Amino acid sequence: MGHRLADASTPARLAAPDEGIGRDELALATRNHGLPLEALRYDLTPPGLHYVLTHYDIPYVPEDEPWRLSIVGRVRHPLRLDLADLRTFPQVTTRVTLECAGNGRALLTPRPVSQPWLVEAVGTAEWTGVPLRLLLAEAGVEADAVDVVFTGADHGVERGVEQDYQRALPAAVATGSEPEVLVAYAMNGAPLPPQHGHPLRLVVPGWYGMAHVKWLRDITVTDVPFTGFQQAVAYRLRRHPEDEGEPVTRIAPRALLVPPGFPDFMSRARVVRPGPVTLEGRAWSGRAPVTRAEVSTDAGDTWQEAELAPDDGHRWAWRRWRCTWTATPGEYVLSARATDAEGHTQPLEQPWNRGGFANNLVQRVPVLCLDGDAAE
Amino acid sequence: MGHRLADASTPARLAAPDEGIGRDELALATRNHGLPLEALRYDLTPPGLHYVLTHYDIPYVPEDEPWRLSIVGRVRHPLRLDLADLRTFPQVTTRVTLECAGNGRALLTPRPVSQPWLVEAVGTAEWTGVPLRLLLAEAGVEADAVDVVFTGADHGVERGVEQDYQRALPAAVATGSEPEVLVAYAMNGAPLPPQHGHPLRLVVPGWYGMAHVKWLRDITVTDVPFTGFQQAVAYRLRRHPEDEGEPVTRIAPRALLVPPGFPDFMSRARVVRPGPVTLEGRAWSGRAPVTRAEVSTDAGDTWQEAELAPDDGHRWAWRRWRCTWTATPGEYVLSARATDAEGHTQPLEQPWNRGGFANNLVQRVPVLCLDGDAAE
Q1: pLDDT confidence of residue A202
Q2: Which domains does chain A have, with CATH numbers?
Q3: Do A38 and B60 touch (CB under 8 A)?
Q4: What distance in Å separates the CA atoms of residue A60 and residue B242, rounded to the nearest whole number?
Q5: CB distance from A116 to chain B under 8 Å?
Q6: To pair with B223 at 20 to 30 A between CA atoms, which of A25, A158, A369, B214?
Q7: ipTM associated with this complex
Q8: CA–CA separation, B265 vs A55, rounded Å?
């Protein structure tokens, strides 16, 4: 009759066929949120519109509470830095498109039961902070370093395992400059909002969100591979529970449309009137620069090339695209598709895995074009 | 074979018994979001944590686009004001707790199919703007005024009706000072974020969110009662579809707990260790000041008085409360209950209506207290 942690946790599972979204998934959906797709119009996503996923609770950090970042483990000079110390290092600002590894999960069949994203778990911001490689150089990483482990202040239990949120990067990535990993203290020029990691977070341009550890308080260099829950259990691409699986790392290409016209409140179906309609949106890839965006108005049977905005030098941020569609009365399914310089693109059939990770199925936007003389 | 607006809309309906949350409800839940309940710790909710409900799309208003507010209808001097004009009027800042009229809807049986809130559709901010009564006095309201209609820039269709979002206040409320209604241009000292109505919104302290029209562009004084969709069709308390129903107006009392301990990622169940646990939260009512907050650890069978924080003079904002619970190993359901100066309180049985509006059923927070020596 003991009361143990395992009693609070539910195991990983797949939804049954036709099983609606459950109370547990809804509880995640009401607290986390995606980018309302019309906000794809902003180059920089306003902080309250940027997607947010919090594994446990958002830590409450009073304004006057000191915050220390430890850099320890296989280093010659362990460091303990406050925010003023961090500001003595060179400062870098990078525009980064951040996407949740679970984006698209709720559209999969069968549906992995977890945060039920449709396609909206994305956002772009300018993050300012210290290059991680400079902090690690100051600490003096030992030659036998294998992984660098990042620990956040958010605390909870997941599948029976009590934990502070922790993720690692390979030492070569953490000390490298492609991408330039940041220990960030500002978002769009202001201190980090609570839900984005106040006061410090990691930013790993090109990688899915699980790598960008929020409320960062410890960096530990290890000489053995990190096997924590979020590295070895969660965030792996597996088809069967017993698979070892591949780790989730860089963001696969994706394009999203600004839904045209106006919506129905409840169905979210889109309505347009006949005539020229500008179709626009964003495309990104964490693997290589986006080189192509295409649009379909017939659910992917045929594709039209969209015009990519000129390269603005923001390698790690989404790129705007647009084209014109001449709408005539009828029902349509609009889609967009991104391709990157390495030839990665998006599938029309779902790329399925048990976690619903790194799934970049093309978006489907049902649109109704009204009769020209519709008086209703 | 016509293509009409009605084809994009779904009618109002109730979910079948045991019907899971649908794709349409999920599409609303992923774009709108509640207050993560741990953020009840903030006196003022950071903007990205404040609840958001958008009926249609968030209008995109470029920084340099001029915005005009019209004040027309039954007035002697119609006005057309830009933001600089508004700043020439006296400025008032009011701390307001704002709650969605549909808060709690997804917990009802049967469940009205709409935005599926659990209990988190709330937030508190300081809104700065011009008292509406001063603008109406400048325009000179005619003696036959009945309603004042507020029109936002968000456009969509709802149950077959294409519309800009519109709501009215009785002329006596709009020209009164209890509450002091504001045409607000700032939230917590900064320009309104896009999702909170940039650049202008109405703020009606004590009323549910549907009255606080965002992206406000027109105020029309009428000599007949306003019968627009959001006034006469939606936002009414009805038990049967054919009922005329009562309009939704002021916020019923509610108390919410900061969930104690730490959560399981998926179940959101809370875990605490044995010993003293501070239980704290907020209580509010739009009808009268909160005079009492109580806490139960046995699902409402017995109640303990909580200590209310001293009155801070913010009549329209939530009030903090706290008490201490000595947890022993076991399973609990925590609840909180608010009572206001007019004796309104919260029910233990659901107050049901077809829209799921103004429902202030007491919150239930399942908590597991671990064995003292739990080593897991």
Answers
A1: 98
A2: 5-247 (3.90.420.10), 254-369 (2.60.40.650)
A3: yes
A4: 48
A5: yes
A6: B214
A7: 0.95
A8: 6
